[in-house]
Structure formats: structure tokens, C-alpha cells
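Run log // design_07
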């Protein structure tokens, strides 16, 4: 089968397409004939630690959708032939192994390309906004880098939860494109200069929850923009800044909560623990069409290098999806 691998060095990432053996599912796993897989910027960023030590080749792709073609020992659900979506390693391939506990049934109305763009970003958004962020209806949500895949998912999920959403982006065209999704306040900036505008927009209240998908360059500004008992989620650092000053007096006086969102150190059981609630609470919105991933474009399997370049340029809004070769 065809599969994409990537080598990460100290300065760059190199992608290579290989012909490799089809994997076999182990206990508690299923083999999926991949139909589509979505790109995620963190996978290609130097310093994110997703590929181990520099100089190591690794099969890439973190989420996708397809049909179950083989079951590992002990698997009773999903069944052979089921259309599923989920997080999985090595998703940029004709076949990939998925943990059965991570495999979610696709709503019948959903295309594979749409389904592939849901598992990682929306589960991350669910973790930030619901499980850890405790976002309530009527609260203010601020999303740094709102046009990214996770940013758009956070905006959409925030609106479903009844929040009022403020988003920052360095490109006014991207902010205008998100207006139909319910973005309440659009702040055109790439700088750490938005706290005043957030406080003004919220009548001095501040943001109850902030999603920081940018990194350390906006960390201090986010603290200044938080409301009393506000929560700050860190989900990425595309700016490459991994250290930031913390105003302990502000954290102390305002009773702030700071948390990270990553699956890097979690066990399989921990990663899968949120899936049943996500299926019960969020997938029905997907099935009803009230939540649908924003896809910037779909590219053919052979064009991953082009898609990677587009993602690294930051010119997209929402997700970029890779369409797999025809079955054979």
C-alpha cells in the first residue's frame, strides 16, 4: 500500500511517499481502508515533539475516515464494512490501524472528506471548551488564531454551547469568512495588543475562556484579557515561542486557571475516555448539520507536498483534507 512518511530535522521537515506492507490490527484495534485524512499544522511544526528525536522517519497523518476491513482480537464494535471516523496514527495511507475505542460511526449524510476533518480538531475543542474549560451559555470565548483548524472548530462548538465568541486573525479576509459561523467580535491583529479591545467588547468583563492556538507571544496578553475566574487553554505554539512570563499577582487575584491540551503523554485509555461523551453530545449536531467542519480545500493523495506548503503558509481557513486513491 502507499503511505506517507516524514523526516523531521533541526531545521526542516521532509515528506516521502513509500510502498509499504498493509498493517494488521492488534487486539482492540480495527483496520480501516482510508478514504480521506485531514492535515494538522502541529504535525509539521518543528519543536512540537510529535515525531520524537530529530532524524527519525515516521508515518504521518493523525485523523481520517474510511471503512472497516479487518477486526483485531476482542473487537465487537465497530463491525466489518462500517464507515468510521477517528484519530489514528499513519492516516496518510491507503490503510491505517485505528483503536476501536476511537472509531466513531459516521453520520449517514456525511461525506468522507467532511468526516476526516472532525475527529482531532473537534475532540480537542471539546476537551478545551467542555471537559476542562467548562464553557457555559452566555460566557465570552476568545480564540487566538481563529481561522486555524482548531480555531474554527472552537468557534463552531462555542456557538453551539451558547457562548459569545471573539476571534483574532492577522488577515481581515479570514475574519470576514468566519462571520457566517457566528463570530461575534472580529479583531484584526497578529500582535499581543488585543486585551483592551476584548475588555471593551465585553463591557470590562473580559473573556471567560481563552483558546491560545498561537503560543507564548500572546500568553501575557491573554492573562490581561481574562475575566475573574477565567480559564486559559494552551493548544499550540505556531509562533515558536514556548516560554512566557506569568503575572502571578493577576493569576492569584483573579483566581485564574491555566491548562494545556495535548495527547502526547496520555495513555490509549485516557485518549479514548472522552469519545463516548463526544459521540453522545456533539456528533448529533454533526448529523443534524448544525456542526460541519470548514474545509478550505480537498487535495488528491499525490499532492500532499502542495497541501503541506499551503498549510505552512497559513493561507487557509479551516481544514485541508487529503483524498485517498481509489480502492484496489
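design_07 sequence
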Amino acid at each position: 500500500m502507499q503511505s506517507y512518511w516524514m523526516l523531521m530535522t533541526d531545521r526542516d521537515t521532509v515528506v516521502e511517499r513509500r510502498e509499504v506492507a498493509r498493517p494488521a490490527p492488534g487486539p482492540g484495534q480495527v483496520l480501516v481502508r482510508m478514504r480521506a485524512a485531514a492535515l494538522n499544522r502541529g504535525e509539521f511544526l518543528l519543536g512540537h515533539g510529535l515525531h520524537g528525536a530529530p532524524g527519525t522517519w515516521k508515518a504521518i497523518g493523525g485523523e481520517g475516515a474510511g471503512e472497516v476491513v479487518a477486526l483485531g482480537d476482542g473487537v465487537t464494535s465497530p463491525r466489518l464494512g462500517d464507515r468510521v471516523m477517528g484519530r489514528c496514527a499513519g492516516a496518510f495511507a491507503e490503510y491505517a490501524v485505528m483503536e476501536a475505542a476511537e472509531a466513531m460511526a459516521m453520520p449517514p449524510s456525511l461525506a468522507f472528506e467532511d468526516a476526516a476533518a472532525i475527529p482531532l480538531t473537534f475532540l480537542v475543542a471539546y476537551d478545551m471548551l467542555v471537559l476542562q474549560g467548562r464553557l457555559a451559555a452566555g460566557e465570552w470565548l476568545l480564540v487566538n488564531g481563529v481561522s486555524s483548524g482548531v480555531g474554527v472548530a472552537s468557534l463552531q462548538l462555542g456557538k453551539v454551547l451558547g457562548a459569545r465568541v471573539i476571534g483574532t486573525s492577522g488577515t481581515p479576509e479570514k475574519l470576514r469568512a468566519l462571520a457566517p459561523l457566528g463570530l461575534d467580535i472580529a479583531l484584526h491583529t497578529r500582535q499581543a495588543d488585543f486585551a483592551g479591545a476584548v475588555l471593551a467588547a465585553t463591557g470590562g468583563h473580559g473573556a471567560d475562556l481563552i483558546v491560545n492556538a498561537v503560543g507564548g507571544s500572546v500568553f501575557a496578553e491573554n492573562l490581561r484579557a481574562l475575566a475573574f475566574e477565567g480559564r486559559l487553554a494552551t493548544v499550540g505554539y505556531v509562533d515558536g515561542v514556548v516560554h512566557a512570563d506569568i503575572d502571578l499577582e493577576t493569576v492569584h487575584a483573579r483566581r485564574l486557571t491555566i491548562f494545556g491540551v495535548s495527547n502526547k503523554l496520555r495513555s490509549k485509555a485516557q485518549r479514548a475516555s472522552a469519545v463516548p461523551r463526544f459521540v453522545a453530545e456533539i456528533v448529533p449536531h454533526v448529523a443534524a448539520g448544525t456542526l460541519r467542519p470548514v474545509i478550505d480545500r480537498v487535495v488528491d493523495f499525490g499532492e500532499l507536498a502542495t497541501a503541506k506548503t499551503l498549510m505552512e503558509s497559513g493561507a487557509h481557513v479551516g481544514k485541508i483534507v487529503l483524498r485517498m486513491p481509489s480502492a484496489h
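The chain has twelve helices and 16 strands.
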